[in-house]
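Weekly sync notes, structure subgroup
Attendees: PM, AL, DS (notes)

Item 1: joint prediction request from the bench team. They want all two components modeled as one assembly rather than separately. Inputs as received:
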Amino acid sequence: MTIWSRVRSWVRVTVFRSRAENEMDTELRFHVETYAEDLIRRGVPEEEAQRRARVEFGGIQNTKENCRDARGANIVESFFQDLRYAARSMRRSPGFAAVAVIALALGIGANAAVFSVVNAVLLRPLAYKDSERLVTILHRGSDPVAVANYFDWRDESRSFETMAAADFWTPNLTGSDPPEHLWGLLVTQNTFPMLGVQPLMGRWFAVGEDLKGAEHEVILSARLWKRRFNSDPSILGKTITLNGEAYTMVGIMPPEFKFAPFWATHAELWAPNALGDPGQTRDGNHLRIFARLKHGVTLAQSQAEISAITARLEKQYPGTNREVRVTSLREKVVGKIETPLLVFLGAVGFVLLIACANVAHMLLARSAARQKEIAVRTALGAGRMRLVRQFLTENLLLSTIGGAAGLLLAVWGTRALVALSPADIPRLDSVTIDARVVLFLIGISVLTSVFFGLAPAMHASAVNLSDTLKESGRGTSEGMRRNRFRNFLVASEFALALMLLIGAGLMIRSFSALQSVDAGFNPHNVLSMIVSVGGSKEAAPGHRAIFYQQLLDRVRTIPGVESAGGINHLPLIGDMWGWPFRIEGQPKSLPGESPSGVYRIVTPGYFQTMRLPLLRGRDITTDDNAGAPGIVIINARAASRYWPGEDAVGKRVSFANDKNKNPIWLTVIGIAADAKQGDWIGKPYPEVYLAAFQNHDFIDSPESHFAYITLVVRAAGDPGPLASVIKENVWSFDRNLPVSQMVTMDGVIADANAESRFEMLLLGMFAVVALALAAVGIYGVMSYSVTRRTHEIGIRVSLGASRINILMLVVKQGMILALIGSSVGIAGALLLSRLMTKLLYGVRPNDPITFATVTVILMIVAFVASYIPARRAMRVDPMVALRHE
Amino acid sequence: MDKQVELMQGTLDMLILKAVSLGALHGYGVLLRIQQISGGRLEIQQGSLYPALHRLEHQGWITSEWGESENKRRAKFYRLTAAGKRRYHAEAEKWNRMAGVIAGILRTTPEEV
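Output from the run, pasted for the record:
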């Protein structure tokens, strides 16, 4: 109630100000006049009565002012007064205002842009119902799971409301032009209810629809629906042809829906996963398990339960159920990107601090120039707090304009960030400037104004009246305190800039280390693409091998093509299946403990096209066909791991048994150099290359994960122009064959390093801005100091100081500040760079080369920035300087 | 006791609340009422009355409306609100307790210490 009455009375005196003023006038006049009448009635003469009434009442203006104060009317009034004054003083020095606003806009805008990314990627919850209860259950937190294990865990655990399984699925969409190799998932029926996202149209899969025979239904993403069906709502209930079979479309998901949020992020359609009978296989890990924790069950509790279950199962089925981890889905999605983003946020915060320090310099310099004005205002009765408020208002105006400009910059910067960033940063497509970003922006704008403005305002308002008014205001040496504060600002700028430069330097070193990593093959001028045959006539048993052979032969005749080959999964972007095998003469080992290798199936010409050198033995030839003895090529790592100290060539291994359960033996005919496999910086795993035309799965299996070939084509020059020619050649066999993932190997490698490049670019950009700001800072302080000390320098010169002495005097002052700042910066960088360890490759966070180089660069910048004003100091003519007073 | 005493700091608010608790008054009326009930022993700077009235109204203890005075002029009349009434009682009680304690202390003779 009293709050309400306060607001009411406050509104009355501020909004209806003139009415309130009138009323106050009437009220006070009534008092004085009535009193005068009373006096007259008591016999005082009229003139005397009126005089006495006025005198006894006291100062009427003073009373009015006190009344206004009592109602808080003056706070608003004086704020607007300050604002008008601030705008006027900004107009008077537009250069200062422009520079300050630009510096603040840069700092604030960059912060808001980075924050908008952090907000979208880290702060917003995943777009599923109660997403904080969603988890994944995977081997070592990342590796897929066997079907039988999924059934066991699902049936034995009590911690989870739902446990669902998803499998990668890449069907061919045919029957409409163009044919397309799609990315999708096979999911258990309970997946959609678990995620709790309602379809845009249609329905989820019903219970029982993931049983064998009933699984020919499909839910589409809005993207696929738009691309292939023009968002036609009547398609529900109709069928499409996937891998040559009819699937009924039962639902469309909303545009923002994405599943899975990691690993299969490009999935555009989902079909029921018919896992078949629970008694099936315990090896062949290919499922990703998703689950929803029951209310009140913690991650640790569910992990404890899963650990107990898997420990028991491992005893029962040795070699299985190892190292099963329950991980929160959020951690799984954003865990990797968290560190770099937080490093960026910290870095961009440093940039803002430096910008603040620079603006604070300028304000200090300005307030020195405004001392007279301040003294006059103080003499006229302005209190110190009133002056501080005045300055803070000016600063608020600056930072508000800076913040508004920063918002524009942020909108633009956010777009630039998203465009620059590597494709595999999760959830980047949802980056927007939302209410939280705007709040953040307003928050840092206000904080910024206090940060850069409070100290200068306190200093400025603390003027010594008589001194300032007496002195001319120039040529007097400055107060030590203000100097110390200015020096502190410059030193801090250097410390911050040094830390940023070290961060950027480490990223540059790390990136160049990544660039010098050897892929194992020669990626230049190699083009690759996937040709899928699933569901086509070429996929039929007996036809596929001939088709592959003819296709390769035809591609090799295209002008500009040097050589061509095929493989099941391309290094770096393709799948990296591990396949267990037996070594002849060694006992059969437990599942999970047998020798295994990354499973590649290659045609003749692959090694030659990739220029992947064979260290020993021979290459696969066209003679290694279905009728010839089985052969395999292994990589150097497999040779040293499984045949240490021996010659692997000539040894025999087996990946499968024939109908009579006898092993099918393959002879090792060659050893290839180690090439990059799954990721760019990983150590090589043992790897095996089987001959395509001897591999039953590759040339006969109808399964979608076998029914395609990845072509690799080496061109004489730039392979780009060949892309469409090769596509036409594929389609000259069959217009229904999807050709997808057309990429150059150079592009593949650039993508593998895209994240590191992005981190380097961003930190580098911040560091350059920081360095520029710090240089401007030290330059500003030095030239200001030279101007203030002109008189002193004049005296020194006239007393015999040489020009070199003067030069040294100024440069030394600047260099000492830079040195102090750098020392603090080095200490800070030693502490902070450890946080970057995860971002670095091939360089330690305390890399002495980086530290030394950066410090030297900073010293050079500091020298140049103080040398320029020092030269001016050197040219001071003592006569002019002394007379100038 | 002809000599006027100066008002102690912070007591003016309480006196105003007391004055208007007996009926709606304009500012001048408040002054007269206080002088009347104090028997003319209190000296109040006339001008200081108005900031206090505005402050009390701002805080919601009293409320005002325009009306006609005894001398047929437009005047602003102040009246106690419900919250002001509670406030006045609380203040008065506090004041009485305080006055009692201080009076007790001042009465104390050396023998009693």
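Discussion: Residues 76-127+338-473 of chain A form one domain.
Action: AL to compare against the crosslinking data before next sync.
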